[in-house]
Design brief:
single chain; 200 residues; alpha/beta; Maf protein; 7 strands; 26% strand
């Protein structure tokens, strides 16, 4: 059985590598638009499904045989203050998001989609993260560090931001970008695939 990760995220790559899964990375150029007002859980499942489908179609166009191939895609967002917080567009946007997250609890949602044997299934995971208060100086320093630049919600829980994470409720790996437990359950429940059987 072959596995493909439909993502260029170094965090997702590292999570699967640490598991001991052999996989290939194929990035998608999927359209990541969605209708305003869509529920956050629906957004992440929709976008992960779009990424998985885009990679499947790309491989089929190349003439690849996907009969024994599992395609895994994921999408992660931060939801705080009634707003979906994607990747910041610049340093000032990072500062805005961090100011919003400071001294409050927000949720991180990841959608996971698996395509195998002509079928597709999606699920999502939600984790609650509590940020300690950040001073204006700390926010400016962190925003300027470069770490938030390509992160949803403008922070990396496994990086400098760990200094301000007081508490999380739920899956840690979800906040990093790939909820492994959710993936395991989806593979088993829908496709009868045991993730543990495919590790080195």
């Amino acid at each position: 059985m072959k596995f493909i990760l439909a993502s260029k995220s170094p965090r997702r790559k590292e999570i699967l590598e640490n598991l001991g899964l052999d996989f290939e990375i194929v990035t998608s150029e999927a359209d990541e638009s969605y209708e305003k007002g869509t529920e956050p859980s629906e957004v992440v499942m929709l976008l992960s499904a779009k990424k998985a489908a885009a990679v499947k179609n790309k491989l089929l166009d190349e003439g690849r045989d996907l009969s024994d191939t599992v395609i895994i895609a994921a999408d992660t967002i931060v939801y705080g203050g009634g707003e979906i917080l994607g990747k910041p567009i610049d340093r000032y946007d990072s500062e805005r998001m961090l100011t919003m997250l400071s001294d409050s609890t927000h949720s991180v949602l990841s959608g996971v989609t698996v395509i195998y044997g002509g079928s597709s299934a999606s699920a999502f995971e939600e984790t609650f993260v509590h940020f300690a208060p950040m001073s204006e100086k700390e926010i400016k320093w962190y925003a300027g560090s470069g770490e938030p630049d390509d992160k949803a919600g403008a922070y990396a829980i496994q990086g400098y931001a760990s200094m301000w994470i007081d508490k999380i409720e739920g899956c840690y790996f979800n906040v990093v970008g790939l909820p492994v437990s959710c993936l395991r359950k989806l593979l088993l429940r829908v496709f009868g695939i045991k993730l543990s059987d495919n590790l080195r």
